[in-house]
Amino acid sequence: MKRLMFVVLALIASPAFAEGENAPFFTLHNAEFVVTIAFLVFVGLLIYLGVPKLMGRLLDDRATLIRNELDEARLLREEARALLASYDKKMKDVAEQSARIIATAKDEAQAAAGQAKVDLEGAITRRLAAAEEQIESAVKAAERAVRDQAISVSVAVAGEVLTKQMTADGAKASIDAAIAQVAAKLH
């Protein structure tokens, strides 16, 4: 049916009908008739050889290929969106983790600064106590040295005074008294 319709339409659209009603159309001397016949034979040959089916199959294959490429592109776009969402989530997680790390580091730094302050105060207190002990020890050593020096000076002065005032009988009596005192303490 399609073939018959095609032939009829080709004949109706032929330029041979444009010459007028007097000229015979169906003669081999008419160039339009020969061209129309050659065209119809060419179209018939194309239909016989299956060129329309081949063209249809090629177009269907091309449409299938384009459909497959579109489906693949759609899948790639969905994968890209999923990957982008995944990276956005990871970036958000990393930002939150960074904020937590920074907050923890600040807290630890403040705690370390507080501990260092306490340790410094303890060290200062210990050093002050050690310095005070050294000062007390130095004061006691100085007092003892002054006392020893005073005793030495007073014994020397007393020895000189006794030597000047003492007579031979007084010295003998003093020596006897010292020997008696030592003998009493030893026994």
Short description:
The chain has 4 helices and no strands. It has 187 residues and is mainly alpha-helical.
How many strand elements? 0
Provide the structure class.
mainly alpha
| Distance between the amino and carboxyl termini | 164 Å
How would you spell out the order of helices and strands? HHHH
Sheet of most strands: none
**pLDDT < 50 runs, ≥5 residues:** 16-20
Fold topology:
Elements (H helix, E strand, L loop, with lengths): L1 H11 L18 H18 L2 H115 L2 H19 L1
Relevant terms:
187 residues; mainly alpha; 4 helices
Characterize the structure shown.
By secondary structure, the chain is mainly alpha-helical. 87% of the residues lie in helices and 0% in strands. The relative contact order is 0.02. Mean pLDDT is 85; it is low at 16-20.
